[in-house]
Design brief:
This protein is mainly β.
Length: about 525
C-alpha cells in the first residue's frame, strides 16, 4: 500500500554519539515548553518583575508578550495554565496566573485572562488554580482557597461559572473505572475521605482507621479495581504519630473497612502503573536511612526491600522493566531487573567535594540510539555558596552533556515534536538553557511513517481498526497534539479495534516501535457525525 506523506519532515537519525547543541539561553526566567492547539510549539516564561508572560517560537524568536494585570504592590508567583482554546474557542491565548499581596499576611488571587487583556475569570483568595482535563469528561477549573481553613472551588468550562465550593479541604477529581467522575477530599479531623458525585452531591464517606493520637497527612491513592477486582473503592493513605520523633505508617483499605495492606514506617506509597507491565506498590520507608519496599498487585506480597535508597521504576525502550535509585554517598546509580536482582551499577562522575542532589532522567535511546543507558543528574558544591552542575552521561561513563550552574535539567518529550533538554540555571537571577537532541529525535507531526501498518477508517468517528500485518509490535500509544498519551495499546493483535468514543474530535498520532526498535507513526483524524 502506498504511504502518504502529509509533511516533508521526519527526523530519525541513528548515531552512536549524541550531538546535543545549545539552542538558546533565556536570561530572564525559567522557560517552559508547550504545544498549542493551533500555533504549535512555543516556549514561555514569567517575567515577574514586569508582570508579563513572554512567549517564543520554536526557533526561540520572540512571538508575543502578554501583560498580566495585578494590583499595585502585588507579586506574581506563578503561571498556572497556558492554552489556546481550552477555556473558550476563540483561539486567543489563555493564561492562568496567581499573585499575592503581603500586608501583615499573604492575600492571594488567581486569574485567567486572554492575550487581549480580557479577564475571563478572577478568583479571590485562590493560591492556585488547576485545569482538570480527563478524556471523555468536561474540563473543569479547581482552585485552592486560602482562609482560616483550606477550601476548594470548582468552575465549569467554558461557562466559567462557579459550580461548587468544598469548605472542608482541598478536593481532587478522579474518573473511577466503574463509577465514573467523582471528587474526593481528606477530612483529616474526622479521619475519613469524603467522595462526591459529578453533580457535587455527596456520594459516600470512608473511615480511615488510625491509632489514637495519629494524624493523617495525605491520601496517596484512590481506585476501584486497581488493587483487586471486587469493585470496592480502594484508598491508600499515610499517617504519623509524634512522640520523640515522627513515626509513619501507610495503609490501603477498601470501603468496607478491610485493611488490604499496612506498611510500618512508610512515609508515602505510590501505585506504579505502566502500560504492559504488572502494577506495583512502591513505599518510601522512613528510618535512619531511606529505604524502599516493592509490593506486587494483586497479591500485595512484599517482593523486595531496597535498603540503600528510594527506588524508582522505569520501562526502558528495548531493555524492559527496571528499578533504580541514587546511591549518593558512593556517587552511583544502581539498576535492578524486574525480579529485583542487581543489573548494573553506574558511576556518576562529579567534581571533588560535590554532593549529588538527584537523578533527573533515565533512558536508553532518548538521547541517542546506541541502547546504552543514559542518566541525567545534578550535583553541587558548597564553598560559601551553592554551585550547581547538571550532566548527562551514558553507562560507559561518557559525558554526553555538561551544564555548569544548572540546578536541574529535564528532557522535554512532547509527541510529534523533537525532544529537548531544558535546564534551570542558577545565578544572580534565574535563567534557562534549551538544548536540541538531533541525533535521535522523531517528529511525527503530520506524517505517516513507512511501516507495514494500516489504520482504518481514517478519518473516523467511533472506532479505529489497527492492522499491524504481523510485523511484531510490542505496544503503541495514541497521542494528542499537545503530547498527552490518551490511550495505551499493549500487545496488539494482528487486528486490534480501539474505541475512540471517549476522545474529543481532533488530530491524533499513533506512535510505537516494532520489535527491531524502528519508530513508526500514523496520523489519525477523529471527526464528528
Amino acid at each position: 500500500m502506498k504511504k502518504l506523506f502529509f509533511c516533508l519532515f521526519v527526523l530519525v537519525h541513528y548515531t552512536l554519539s549524541a550531538q546535543i547543541n545549545l539552542e538558546n539561553a533565556y536570561t530572564d526566567g525559567y522557560v517552559l515548553r508547550v504545544d498549542l492547539a493551533n500555533s504549535g510549539e512555543k516556549y514561555y516564561l514569567l517575567d515577574a518583575q514586569n508582570a508579563v508572560a513572554k512567549f517564543y517560537n520554536a526557533n526561540h524568536t520572540l512571538w508575543k508578550t502578554i501583560n498580566l494585570p495585578i494590583p499595585t504592590g502585588a507579586t506574581i508567583n506563578a503561571i498556572n495554565h497556558v492554552s489556546e482554546n481550552v477555556i473558550n474557542s476563540d483561539n486567543l491565548l489563555e493564561v492562568g496566573y496567581t499573585f499575592f499581596t503581603n500586608s501583615g499576611g499573604l492575600i492571594y488571587e488567581s486569574r485567567i485572562i486572554n492575550e487581549a487583556g480580557t479577564t475571563l475569570l478572577s478568583i479571590p483568595n485562590a493560591s492556585s488554580i488547576f485545569v482538570s482535563q480527563m478524556g471523555g469528561l468536561q474540563d473543569k477549573i479547581i482552585a485552592t482557597i486560602q482562609g482560616a481553613t483550606i477550601s476548594s472551588e470548582v468552575y465549569g468550562i467554558p461557562s466559567l461559572a462557579l459550580e461548587h465550593t468544598y469548605t472542608d479541604g482541598y478536593v481532587s477529581r478522579i474518573d473511577l473505572a466503574n463509577s465514573g467522575e467523582k471528587y474526593y477530599l481528606l477530612d483529616a479531623q474526622n479521619a475519613a475521605t469524603k467522595l462526591y458525585n459529578a453533580d457535587y452531591t455527596f456520594w459516600k464517606s470512608i473511615n480511615l482507621p488510625i491509632p489514637v493520637g495519629a494524624i493523617i497527612n495525605g491520601i496517596n491513592h484512590v481506585s476501584e479495581n486497581v488493587i483487586n477486582s471486587d469493585n470496592l473503592l480502594e484508598v491508600g493513605y499515610t499517617f504519623f504519630t509524634n512522640g520523640t520523633g515522627l513515626v509513619y505508617e501507610s495503609r490501603i483499605i477498601n470501603e468496607a473497612g478491610t485493611t488490604l495492606l499496612s506498611i510500618p514506617n512508610a512515609s508515602s506509597i505510590f501505585v506504579s502503573q505502566m502500560g504492559g507491565l504488572q502494577d506495583k506498590i512502591i513505599a518510601a520507608i522512613h528510618g535512619a536511612t531511606t529505604s524502599s519496599k516493592v509490593y506486587g498487585i494483586p497479591s500485595l506480597a512484599l517482593e523486595h526491600t531496597y535498603t540503600d535508597g528510594y527506588v524508582l521504576r522505569v520501562d526502558l525502550a528495548n531493555l524492559g522493566e527496571k528499578y533504580y535509585f541514587l546511591d549518593a554517598p558512593n556517587a552511583t546509580a544502581k539498576f535492578y531487573n524486574a525480579n529485583h536482582t542487581l543489573w548494573k551499577t553506574i558511576t556518576l562522575p562529579t567534581t571533588t567535594g560535590a554532593t549529588i542532589s538527584g537523578i533527573n532522567h533515565v533512558s536508553n535511546n532518548v538521547i541517542n540510539s546506541d541502547n546504552l543507558v543514559e542518566i541525567g543528574y545534578t550535583f553541587f558544591t558548597n564553598n560559601g555558596g551553592l554551585v550547581y552542575e547538571s550532566r548527562i552521561i551514558n553507562e560507559t561513563g561518557t559525558t554526553l552533556l555538561s551544564i555548569p550552574n544548572a540546578s536541574s535539567a529535564f528532557v522535554s518529550e512532547i509527541g510529534g515534536l523533537q525532544n529537548k533538554i531544558i535546564a534551570a540555571i542558577q545565578g544572580t537571577t534565574l535563567s534557562s538553557e534549551v538544548y536540541g537532541i538531533p541525533s535521535f529525535a522523531t517528529s511525527v507531526l503530520g506524517i505517516d511513517s513507512d511501516v507495514s501498518l494500516s489504520i482504518y477508517p481514517n478519518p473516523t468517528i467511533h472506532f479505529l481498526t489497527i492492522d499491524n500485518r504481523g510485523i511484531g509490535i510490542k505496544d503503541m500509544n495514541l497521542v494528542s497534539r499537545n503530547g498527552e498519551i490518551v490511550k495505551s495499546i499493549q500487545s496488539p493483535r494482528q487486528k486490534t479495534v480501539v474505541d475512540l468514543n471517549d476522545l474529543p474530535i481532533g488530530v491524533y498520532f499513533l506512535i510505537g516501535k516494532d520489535q527491531k526498535g524502528n519508530v513508526f507513526s500514523k496520523k489519525l483524524v477523529k471527526q464528528s457525525f
